[in-house]
Every structure is written in structure tokens, then in C-alpha cells.
## 1
Amino acid sequence: MESLAAAGLLPVDGWTEPPGLVPPVITGQAPGCPPEEGRVEAVLDVTEPELREKANADWYRLSVEGGLFSETDRRFLLAHRPPEGGPSRWHCVELRPEWDVMGQGAAGPLGSASCRPEFRMLSLDGGVLCFGTTWEHAISTSVLTAPNRSQVLRRFAQWVAQGEMDEPGEPPLSPAVRRWLDAI
């Protein structure tokens, strides 16, 4: 929780996941979604001066314009792996007035180091997916509207629903993925 606070994210108590949200494991394939599926992207070279500031500005602009959250209701869902292990789950968070998603956040639970993002965020209604990705020489923030319509995500989900990623001794991923596919 401290690392979320450093990013400017406050966990929201009392939130329960509604049925029908895309499982976090499926959103890992979102960087492969083409623009024709509704993906909008902002890319910055890692040598860009003021990289953190520009990356934070891109994330906020795309998040608001795309509908991840609004200026008045800054709550959204964050895919986060439990400390005890197991698959990532959606957790409701609220963006604080002071935040640093691409710096402190990426150095903690939202990436591998400052300005090296790897995160998945979802609007409360599940209609907008926002994700940060680190490439070889660049970082990007993308928004995908209507992730349930993405053929890339659906094809991957169909593969996962067959049990291809289920591991012995771990909670199976396939039942949640199958429920999502059946609901869309």
C-alpha cells in the first residue's frame, strides 16, 4: 500500500468486482491491439528530456480523454498481483491530487523502474483499458476503448479458456476467462 501511496493512488475500501470485467491476465496482450480496434497511443523515446513529466502528462491526458476516469471522479481499477501470489486482480483506487504514475509509480507496483511502466488500468464500468508499456528504446501509454470488442484480446482469451495457462497448485485462470467470454 505504501508503494501505491507514493504513486498518488489511494485504495478504495468496500469495492466489489462486478461480473463481466475483462480478466487482468487477458489485458497483458493489449499492446498488440491495432489502432483499428480503438487503441490510441502516446510514445516517448527514453532519451527524451523531461521524460517523467511528459509521460505523466500523456498518461493523464489519455486517461481523461479516453474515459478511464474523469476530472470529478478520479477512481479506476488497477490490476495488481496479491503479495501472497496468484493471478492479478482488479483493485479500485483513486488518484490523489499529488501523483506520479510514471516516476514513483513505475518504480514501484506500476513498472520495473522510474519511467519504465508496465501497468493495466480499467474504468469502473470496464469500458476503457489504459496500459503502460516499456519498449526497447521507448515507453508508451495507450488507451483501448471497448476491450470486450478486441479480436486480439478475444483470441488470447479463447486460448487461455482452454486451460493453457493453468498451473498445478495455482488457482486456475480458465474459469474466469471463460465467464468473461460467455458474457461478451
## 2
Amino acid sequence: MNPRNTPKTLAVAGVFIAAALSVQTVFAAETTSSPVVDAASNGFSLQFEQNISATPEQVYQALTQDIGQWWLAAHTWYGSSAQMTLAAKAGGCFCEIAPDGRETEHLRVVKVEPNQLIRLSGGLGPLQGEGLSGVMDWQILSTTEQQVTFRVSYRVGGYSPNDLSAWAAPVANVLQQQMRAMQTFVEAN
């Protein structure tokens, strides 16, 4: 058996894809264009934007200090959003730390421009086990004093025996679901 294809890894990947596909219809109605910029057997690129009624500082705080309050538990390894943290500094960890000693680095912070940009590197979710490289940007673009456009870009590539284009739409949908949760959290607080 391929060590990446253990029953637990396959189960987590299946849950990830099922959750992504379950929200696909909701987001198709809310977005005007596909977040999938391109997709090929060796990688894919995603980008989408959403308007948030908040200041850049409020969005940045939600992304960094409050991530455990809005990140959806369905998209964690250990089932609790409260275990999610993001250290907003170069080399910082976007991590999930369970009280029983289990830990996962979801992504690594590689660039921070407070209230403007957080750049992360790595394979999110089941992509981690594929051994892929990825770069994700969370960009906060101020449009008015109380309104921002939040842009998410994710570029993933590398060798995998699997066709990576199949991951593009599910990953895009999960990211949209997460960022919609962040938007709801920010606008409610």
C-alpha cells in the first residue's frame, strides 16, 4: 500500500472533498466567475475576492489573532477550531495543536505586511500528504474606510502520481467556505 494512501489519509481526503462539493452549489450562486484560474495534471491556481464591511485592521486581526474563532471545525485535522493559531511573522506557523500532543502545521508564514498581506507556503489539508508546494496570499485591499476587498490566491504544483487538476474545484470551494466564515465573524463583531 502506498504510505500516503493509508485508510485514515484517504478518509480525511474524502471528507475534505465531500465537504467542498457540498458547498459548491452555494458558492456557484454567490460568485460571478470561477475561482479556478487554471488547472493541469501537475498543479492549479485559484483566486477569488469578497467584499467585507470592515476596516483592514479588523480583517487582519481576524486572520491572525482570531482564526480559532471562525475557522470551520470540519476543515481541521482534530475537530476543533479553537486549536487553530497563526503566528503572523516570517517563519510563523499556521498550526493546529491538540491538547493530547497531536500537532499539524497547515501552512508556514513567509511574508507579512500588517493590514495588507499574509503570504503562506505549503499544502493545505490533504495536499500536505501529496508532497506538493503551494503559495497562498491573503491580500486585504482597502476600498473605503469601512469596506475592504479581500483577495485569496493559491498556487499549487509539484509531482504527484494523481491528477492535481481534480483538486482545484474542491480546494477552491473549501477556501471560499472558510473565508465566508471569516467574513461573517468580522462583520458580526
## 3
Amino acid sequence: MSVIQFPKQKAVFQPFAHFVRLGEGSYRRVADLIAAGTLTSKRVVIDASKAAHQRDSIEMLRGRETEIVLDPRTIELSSRQKCGGLASSAPWASAEKGIPLAPDLFRKGHSTDIYGQIARMCVEFGVDAVLAPTQFLGDPGFDGWYRINVEGCELLRSALDEAGGANIRIDYLLAGRLGDLRQPDFQRQFLSDLPSMPVDNLWLRLSMSPIENSPTNAQRLIGTLAGWHNAGAPIIMDYAGGLAGEALLSMNVVSGIAHGFGEQTTFNTSNWNDAPKERDQEDGKKGGRAQRISVTALGRTFTSKEMEVLLSAHGARSLLLPTERHIAPNGVQDIQTDARRFNAADAEHRLRAISKIPTVDRPEFFAQTRMREVASTAKRVEQLNPKPEVAKANNIDLVKLQKRLADQRKKADSMRETFEDIATERKAQGYLAKEIGSVRLAVPHKETGTR
């Protein structure tokens, strides 16, 4: 008699991974939020460009049994435009600032020993995992990165073992355009190569317009990721924050997301072949981009000045501020004095809500509950009447702001309808993302003095 083994049953509440990127400009504040318990994630990503300044934070994270992943930043360092920015502080950046890393540096036996440098940093800082040093597959200056990257995984594994980091794991970071993933030939090639790579998880960083702005992009991305369910490794969507991150987790097409707060939330390479900028303004400091406030009920962000204008309208606070007291115990004052804490606490609240929904019900929850909240809020926000004098004092064009609100209302209605269709498709397809493993710790706590 033959025995038919049933597939392993999925957990009713399948966990997902939330990787918090400390970032390059906000790393001190984000680390403080983790230490204070505002951010409860047990997985963080540190940038090689700032690791030297994060020793105290790394020791604190070890003590909290947090999985620490190192990003070597080779994607930016191999880009003509981005190589001269903040990532240029990484030890393996070109000695001549503004010169991108060339393909030959990543080939076996090159004198720079870039894999050895990365491995030794991993061991020195006691990280638990490292993102494979890869490049953007759509690089207009070189179309052979893929094979170099695949071979580089093996070279990094050997370098880690030689440097004393045999317990440090590798995650593969695939950076490209959505169209790359949709190519059948590329998909077959990658899914054939992946099982033999010495990696745990597959990270995806895709250059595309935000899905919350485009129903078509939402359908294409989720449909594409659904087709990758048999990759054999958990999929982490990198640079995916806000409503987009919520959507991907809820639709059960990824095993986790990674993002920063105020930076590293979207990935766009439309001008990466341009001349390098003198200063990378991705950190949100003075002279860079303005601090943005997340309004999760609307699934949008506004500058602090725009937020002040909106809150001057009658009834705006009940619409734009969360009702949960712990997120903003002092109301508007919390946003004004510590926007990053507010954003982090609100984002954690949204992800916790998803985790409490049975896995198979998450697509319907997102479409019927979350997106209806967004659409309803957008409709009511469009009807707000901010005070003109407050707009003038903050140098905000009130007419343009109100037009944006009207456009967002239209997009919210369209996105709600789109996700209702996607949720129906996902329920019919049935399969779920591969379950993520537990937090990885390269060295048992009892073997270190800091854990």
C-alpha cells in the first residue's frame, strides 16, 4: 500500500520578517527607538558606510538578541551617480571619490580582495548575516553583472569561512527592474541558479514607480511575485515601506519587508547613469530633503510644513492623527518634536495589525478593511479647509496642496477596487509565501560578553 504524504500545513498566523534599516542619516535616532522599545523588530540592517560609527548601537542590538545584517552598499558604489554619495564611506569604495566600482574588482583573484574586506568587516562587527555584494542588473554601462554576482556569492562564502565567519549567513540581493523579473528566460535561469547558492533568503530591490500610485503597477508586481512562490527561499522586499509594504505582506507574496524611516523606503534608478552628485541628499538632514510625516490612515506622507497646514483645518486632527494613544501620547506636539518616533510607532502598529489576522484572510483584510479606510479618509481629507494664513506662513501653495488631495482621493478609490480584485485572485491561487525562519544569531549569546 502506498502512503501519500500531505503537504506541510501552514501556520494559521504565519509570521513575517520586518527588517529595520538603521540608514545612513537617521541611524542614531532609529537605534535609540529600538533601545527605547518603540521599534520592536528583532531584525536590523546596518550600512557598511556607517558601521564604524555604530559600534555602540551594534553592541546594544546584540544585547537584545537582534539579528544584524550588513549591507555592503555595492549597488550604490557601482553606480555612476550614487557612488560619490554617502555610500562612499564604505571601506571598499573607490579611492577616487565619484568613480564607480568596476566589474573586474568583483572577479576572482582581483588584488583589491573586496570579498575579503567585506568578510573581515562582518567578523569584526559581529554581524549575523550579510547581503551578497551585487549590482543593479539594469546598469546601462555593463550588462554582465548577473553572472559576476552569482559567482561572487561563492567567493564571499569562502572569504567568510577563511576570516572566521563560518556561522555568518548570506542573503542574496537581486536589484533590477520589475520587467527583469517578468522575463521568462531570466526567471528560469535565476530559479535554476538559486538552489545551489550558499544563501538563506532572497532579497528583491526593484526600481519602479510606487505601487500606491498606480493600480497597474500593483497588479504587475503582486502578480509577478506570486509567480516566484516556488523560488525555494523566503523573499524579502527591500526598500518597501508604508502602504506598499503592508500590501505585499497582506497579499502573502513576500516573507518580509525591509525599509528605513525617512530614507531607504523606495528604489528608483531612472537617473543612475547621470554624473555623480556632489552630495547625496537621501538622509533627510538640513540641506537635504524635508522631514516627512507619515499619515498611515491615508497611506501618504507630507512634509512637516504641509502637515501643519492640514492640521489647521477643522476636524483634521481626528482624521490625520492615529486614535491609539501610545503612538502620539502628546498629540501634535509629538509630531513636531519627534517625527521619526511618530512614524516608527505608527508603522509598527500597522504591521502588528496584519500579524493578528489569519494568514489566508490577510488579502481580504487589506482590500476590504485597510484600503476602505484609506479611501474613506482620502474622501474626507479632500473636503478639509486649511487656513490660508497658515499656508502662507509656511510658504505652502494651498491650491496645489488641495489639488494633490483631490488626486489622492481618486487614486485611493482606484486602488481599493484594484486590491479587491487582487485579493480575490490571491484567494483562488491559494498558495502563500514561504515562511521565514527564526532570528539568526551567528554566535550564541553565552559566547560573548555583550549578549
## 4
Amino acid sequence: MYRVIALISAFFDAGIRWLRFFLCWSLLTVFAAFSLSAQVQSDEKDEKSEPAGVQVHRDIVYATPAGQALALDIYQPVRQNIRGLMPVLVIFHGGGWLINNKSIMQQMAEYVATHADIVVVNVDYRLLSANHNTTRLYQIVEDAMGATLWVQHNIGRYQGDPARLAVTGDSAGGHLAAMVVLGGQNLSSQSFASRQPGFNPSYLPPGTTAESIQAAGGIRVQAAVLSYAVFDLQARAFAEFETAKNGFWAMGKASARGFFGAGISVNTHSELYRALSPQFLIPQAQHRQLPPQFIHVGSRDNLTTPESARQYVDALQAAGQPARFQVYAGLQHAYLDSGCSAYFGSCFQREAIAPLDDIIRFLTETLTEKQAVTQPAG
């Protein structure tokens, strides 16, 4: 009798886990559809119009990996009271690494550059569907690192201070920002060709290599803002993110596949998935001090949950690393995206302003002249 009860209980638990995964990916599918809708609305805006007191430099190509030109927009405050170089914020958009482009962050970029003396850089990167659906996730991380290096070595032309640079992103973009912070000290021209992977940035300053940047101290930034970010890629893979149950593949018009190509899965190469998971890359402060990080999420977020954000913050604090954590009551996913979301019932002008004001305060407090750290020349 007890054995029958145990079997029934195990069957029930398995059913609950399956139902949780199914509901999660169903939500992802619906979210992806409305995220694409919001992107279209943003694309339809007149991008040639510029916010008051800000000069926008659009579609500057920073790298051309695998023949694909990658561009960024620079929002340069030009107000009369500005003297000298300004801090810099680099933005990576979200979309499950499969949909959206930098236009989805346009309103955020405009808001920060308008309300603070901060140069904002809004970045595009390869999607997994790029190059005939062969782009691998670590190559997207390498795009984010390449964009950061480009900014550090070129932003002075736009009155930005490369020694006061922060990275940010939402959802998948938050994952990329976290990887710049945590993986920027692990550079190698061999990239992920071995079982001891490193990153080969898509852009390298002239006359440098991944190894020379690494020898000079790697990619260092002075702050990070991680908005409802993905912290554990291994858990996502176990939850069937690499299968058709993940609606982002369909929305990105791509067939579901593994992040690392044929023959590689989380069961056979878990170390590769952990190498792309910020949750597992946090160093002890006595070995390497990380820059201050502001992690925030909505209390009703079912895609990148407050619990997953709290786990990352707890791991940072346990390692002695500085972290600030905020849960915004009543907010769901994607509250920093441009436009409005019919699915989430949210609009940028209503939901994004309070979090953005907190982000600006954090950056203003953190990226001061006194706290600036000189970047390596490469």
C-alpha cells in the first residue's frame, strides 16, 4: 500500500513539474509575440527626431563578425552646463537572444541621456538565428564584449569617459551585461574551441589580441545594472529552452537547436553552460573585486523571477561583492521596453519611469570622478 502511495505521489510531482515548464514556455511564446509587436511600434517612430539637449549618432558599425555588420547608437548630451567628459552607459536589449533589436531600448536610452549627464550607447548584437541559425550563444556574449571594448576605445569622441563606464540590459540583455562583468577577465582567441573556454570579443582595438587585452587586465567596467536578467543558463537548458517548447524560436523564425551546436547538450557538456551562467562565475572578493551591481525585477515577473534574482544577489553578497537589490511591486516582465505591451498591460511612460530614476541615481552615485578606475589601454 505504501509503495502504491509513493508511486502516485512521484507521478503527481512529475506532472506538476511538467505543467510548470509548459506554462513557462507558453508565457514565453505569448510574451515574444507581444515583444515583437512593441518592437514594430518602436520601429515606426520617427528615429530622426532627437530628444531635447541630446545629439544622437545612429547606426555606427562597431564590428562585422561572420560578415554581419553590428551597429550601435550613441546618445550624447549637449547641454550648456556640461563640462568635460561624462559617464557612459552601454545598453543590451532583451528578447531571449532570438528577437528584437536596439529600437526596443530607444525610449530608455533617450530618457537616461535627457535626465542625466550620461552618454548612452544602445547596442545591437547577433541573434541566435543569424548566419542561417548557426550563431552560438557564446558568440553573442563576444559581441557584447566587443561592443564594450569599442566604447572604451572610442567614446572619448562623443564626450564620454571610458574610465566611468557601466553596462546594463534587460532579460537576455541583462545576461549579456552580467557576462561582460564576470567573463571579461576570461579572454582567449581560441574562444569556445576547447573544454576550457574563453571569449574572443567581436571587436578588438587595432594592434591587440584577446590575449593582450587579458594581460592588460581584461575588460573592466565600473558598474552594472541588471534588469530582470537571466542568471542561470544551465537551468534554462534543463527547462527545455533549446527545444520548440521555447516560443522564442518560432518568433525568431528559427528551428530550435542547442546553444552550442550539434552533439553538445547540457547533459554532456554542462561546463559550457555554466561558463555562460553568471550565477556560477562570481569570484570571492579577496580574489577579484567586482564593480557595484544594481539588480532589479518586478514582483509579478514569471519569466525571470524575483527568486532567481535573489539567488544571484545572495551569491554576490556571500562572496563579499557589492550589490543593490530592488523588487518593484506589481510590475511584470519587460517594463523598460519602448512602447506598450498589450499582454503585460504596461507602457513605458507608466511603468519605466520610477525604475529608470532609481537607475540614474545608482549610476550618479557610483560613476563619480573619485570612484573612476583607469581602463587598460589594450
